[in-house]
Amino acid sequence: MAGIELDTVRRFVDVAVDALAAAREEIDALNVYPVPDGDTGTNMYLTVASARDALGATEPTATDRSAGLEAFARGALLGARGNSGVILSEMLGAVARRLRDADDSERNAVVMADGLRRASDASYAAVGEPVEGTMLSVLRAASEAAQRVVSDDDRARARDVFTAATAAARDALARTPEQLEVLRNAGVVDAGGRGLCVILDAAETALTGKRPVVEPAAIGAHAIPVPQATGADLSADGPAYEVMYLLEAEDDDVPDLRVRLGGLGDSVVVVGGDGTWHVHVHTDDVGAVIETGLAAGRPHRIRVTHFAEQAEADRREPVAQRRVVAVAAGPGLAAIFREAGAVVVEGRPGVRPSTGELLEAITECRAREIIVLPNDENSVRAARMAASTAELDDTDARGIRVSVIPTRAQVQGLAALAVHEPGRAFDQDVTEMTATARHVRDGAVTLAARTAMTSAGPCEEGDALGVVSGDFVIVGNELAEVTRGVLTRLLAPGGELVTLASGVDGADLADTTAAWVEAEYPHVDVVVYDGGQERYPLLMSVE
To answer: pLDDT tens digits, residue range 130-182?
Structure first.
């Protein structure tokens, strides 16, 4: 394999997410095309953050390189938001697939240059009517510069490729107003192109360790960036709705799908592959766009945004003072959280919610104060990014506060929500919920999916594994025996309440375990819930 390894990709995506977070408001302010809705920076940020979340959920081992790159590409595809985010997901996916397919005989510089070329070709192919002066032309300029480097110097390195590509991208960005009249009239460069420059700068940083110094390029009387004029109507009348959905369809049906969608609206982008596609359209006929997807396959996660209503919604005051957002790993757990008044984001082992999904839940709360319970260690970072983004998006100065309690287990979230009290001060409520979650000792049991080495020793496929605080502590043959071993450890320091959440096919295990606790620890109360979670027949906690 070529030498661009997962550690480098992880370093790149960390830098890219942080850089987009810092530039998000600037890029949003540049957003006048194709619709002046001021969200390009946010959409690109959330798309890359989703890719990072997916990559972070993979095991950090060298043997997982191919799986990690596939997860990275799929995370970008599934988490893409808006026109710019969907196009960006295709660009990132093309580069990731080229890295995945590289072999030992190829130089890193050639692989990266070819990855940029494929990303450019794929993004042009994905857009129904490509427009010059956008992120498409900025990436093409970067790709062409990268190609020149590897053709002119057979000793060039990947860092040389990105140094040339980033410089060419900045030059192309400065030319976008010459190519697109709406940009020239507004006195700005293309927002998507600016975001792409931030991402290419991050790639250069990841490979060189140096942060590029970007000098703003003058455009007329303005410099990059310049905010959009308040209240300016910078686009001609266009479609009223943005429609997005994921589509399960045969790859051979997609070319016809693009053509049919092109007759229903504009800003048509269809990206993906291997049976999973992300569709984006601006249209006046929402029903027809969805019906077109139904004719091709199975659309799901359908999102419809009415541009005018969205602008009005952004100006409305929140209707609630305080809400809780909780991630639930199963239908039973989701029902419990909802009954307690929480807004639920569904997530299960291996399919964790993205930053964008968490942000959407936070936004839909329409509350001044929001408490987020990620209930999964790998989702804490995504929750914090969503929280910070929600507070930055408080453009009406409504004083929104979002606090993330770093619950790393479902049972910790249940305990925290049990002491939630909306009537007390926000900081006090967060403190009480946090303290309760921290005092919960959590465990679980599962079955080994393959032969592996765990922190408790080697295991074979089908072995029962006991987990305490996220670490494997017991390897055994019987689930019931391992469950008792886990609870014995959890109860060793004492405790007054045991909470059991049964998973799929775990009801009998929960009942027998509850009976065992009542017999062995008569002073301890036991509560049993039907959690419905996958992979873990039983989740347990001690308070």
So the answer is: 889 888 999 999 999 999 998 888 888 888 999 899 999 999 999 998 888 88
Sign of the CA dihedral running 202, 208, 209, 210: negative
pLDDT tens for each residue of 13-54 = 888 988 888 888 788 888 777 767 667 888 888 889 888 888
Q: Which helix (H) or strand (E) holds 340?
A: none
Q: Is the dihedral of CA 531, 534, 540, 541 positive or negative?
A: negative
Give 328's strand partners: 346
Q: Tokens representing 426?
A: 């926000």
Residues 177, 66: Cα–Cα separation, whole Å: 40
166: Cβ–Cβ under 8 A, 6 or more apart, which residues?
A: 142, 197, 200, 201, 203, 204, 212
- Distance, CA of 186 to CA of 31 (rounded, Å): 10
List 525's β-bridge partners, or say none. Answer: 497
Is the Cβ–Cβ distance between 442 and 412 less than 8 Å?
A: yes
Decide if 142 contacts 149 (C-beta within 8 A).
Answer: no
Classify residue 352 by its DSSP letter. P
Sign of the alpha-carbon dihedral angle for 206, 208, 210, 212: negative
Pairing assessment for the beta strands 401-404 and 452-454 based on DSSP bridges: unpaired
Give the pairing type, strands 538-542 and 525-530.
unpaired
3-state helix, strand, coil in the chain (%, to 5): 50, 20, 30
* Cα Rg, the chain, nearest whole Å: 25
